[in-house]
Amino acid sequence: MYEVRFHGRGGQGSVMASGILAAALVEEGKYAVSIPSFGFERRGAPVVSFLRASDREIRQLTNIYHPDCIICVDPTLTKSVDIFAGLKPGGALVQATHRSLEELALPDTVATVGLCDAVRIALDIFKRPITNTLMLGAFARTTGIVSLDALKRALEDSEFRDAGLVQNMTALERGYAETVVHQIERRAAA
Amino acid sequence: MSTATLEKPATADAARKPKVILCEGNEAAALGVALARPDMVAVYPITPQSSLVEHVAKLIADGRMDADIVDAEGEHSVLSVLQGGALAGARTYTATCGPGLAFMFEPYFRTTGMRLPIVMSIVTRDGITPQCVWGGHQDAMTVREVGWVQIYCESVQEVLDTTVMAFRIAEDHDVMLPVNICLDGNYLSYGTSRVELPDQADVDAFMGPKDVNWHVALDPLRPMAVDPLTGGSGGKGPSTFVRYRKSQCRGMQNALSVITKVHEEWAQRIGRSYAPLVEEYRLDDADFAIMTLGSMTGAAKDAVDEAREAGKKVGLIKIKTFSPFPIDALLQAFRKIRALGVVDRSVGFRWNCGPMYQETMGVLYRLGRQLPSMSFIGGLAGADLTIPHFHRVIEETEALLTGPMPSEPVWLNEKD
């Protein structure tokens, strides 16, 4: 079982991204379940979405409290939400940010970090800061849990059409290509 | 939610392989409706049912479903419109929940008395007030005594399969009752999962011929009085009314065997099987069991597996068919155990326990021995019921083997 928690803001498409990732995983023959969080959703407010992937059928339909990976599609969210809550030791962070690894305050649980300047790229592609599909590319690059090809096929089958599909395909590819992955070495506890 | 379609593998038996898709529970319900080929649907959107009727409307607009759709001005009209359709011989469908179901109550009662085999999903939602728009079984539980068959689903796949089966159950000549397919708001309505889509030709063969108004009809070629005045204390009024009610009760009892038969046929033709009334999970050598309903069951089964590894002899009993209440199937399960914990996703205000626990106590009376039991209430208004919650249920139920029965229910999310 591999568990992912998406963090974003209402209107940024993190729930949709979670669905496209689930579709890509099913494409690859895996089982996947995606559940949006239920709260007082509104545009701009912090929202969460959950995704489980497994080689076996997934029975539990619950939220995720101890994810293997956190995908944060918004660069400002860490000021208002503890996105790292419950992250498993040795976990991964896929973060939309223009900052360098040294500028981020990361807890000890984070071992793998994928950083993508997604807002800049999104403004380039969409003329709007829509980072969700970019960050799926960044996730594939950082973790290797899903292939870029499977994500592309899932995107083709999604509700994106015409120019929107082309733009999002570009976003996926650039998210994959322009993510920098870091491995953080930590000394084993004495 | 987007739908991704997998390419079929290029093998010789590819034509027999089911199409694998990814969809949310509300879309799975809509796809199940389309497979059953209704003639008429009437809709009014309400959270968390809205995306279900949006998917139905889209299937019709895209030409993938050949049905008339009526955008009624409210749920009372939705069900009234469908009654007219059913009386004219149409296979009919709608979906609602919570306040919409409340607004529908008057025709909701009439549907069972007229024995109209209408299928309606309840995308279950907790009761207001306090204000909330999230899941819980309070709406469906509140109307459990109106004579609809009520079947609860555990997974997105089961939503799709059971929605198709519901039409066969409702239209069976020994039943002729409306059927509610209950899918949990939030966790099943928006939960997105891998689903196998049955082949339309297989479903057509499963459904067989349609015959929904042989007993009561608005038909110029068969003029009859529909829903005439009965009852009172004179003439044939009282005995006529009693015959109606006894016949409804007989239809409900017949539903137990029909639901079982329809599930067996679904397994033969489509290749997926479910316990039609009550599922026993790891129960045969269990000392005690927990009892669940709906989408909470997956996490509960995972917790049972973990507890088994830790040496606890626990099993699980899941109710799928809640109305008619599966008394005999439950008695068979209860004979295997010495303690029982029942988890409800709604509140029984009169008894200070969960409604499923309240119903279960009636069954326990017929067991012929004392079975220590207790009530747990959780997952109200969208609250999560997780594996740790079920470990608590397992521990407190196990304590009944040696300790006293609590008189108060345990509120599982009280300190979340």
From TrEMBL, chain A:
UniProt xrefs under Pfam families: POR
NCBIfam families tied to this protein: PhenlGlyoxDHPadE, PorC_KorC
The keyword Oxidoreductase belongs to this UniProt entry's keyword annotation: yes
Naturally occurring in which organism (per UniProt): Aromatoleum diolicum
Span of domain Pyruvate/ketoisovalerate oxidoreductase catalytic: 10-177
Record keywords: Oxidoreductase
Name of this chain's protein: Ketoisovalerate oxidoreductase
From TrEMBL, chain B:
Top-level lineage group: Bacteria
InterPro entries: PadG, PFOR_II, Pyruvate:ferred/Flavod_OxRd, Pyrv_Fd/Flavodoxin_OxRdtase_N, THDP-binding, Transketo_C/PFOR_II
Entry protein name: Phenylglyoxylate dehydrogenase
The Pyruvate:ferredoxin oxidoreductase core domain, residue ranges: 286-389
Keywords: Oxidoreductase
Keyword Oxidoreductase: yes
Species of the source: Aromatoleum diolicum
Domain Pyruvate flavodoxin/ferredoxin oxidoreductase pyrimidine binding: 33-230
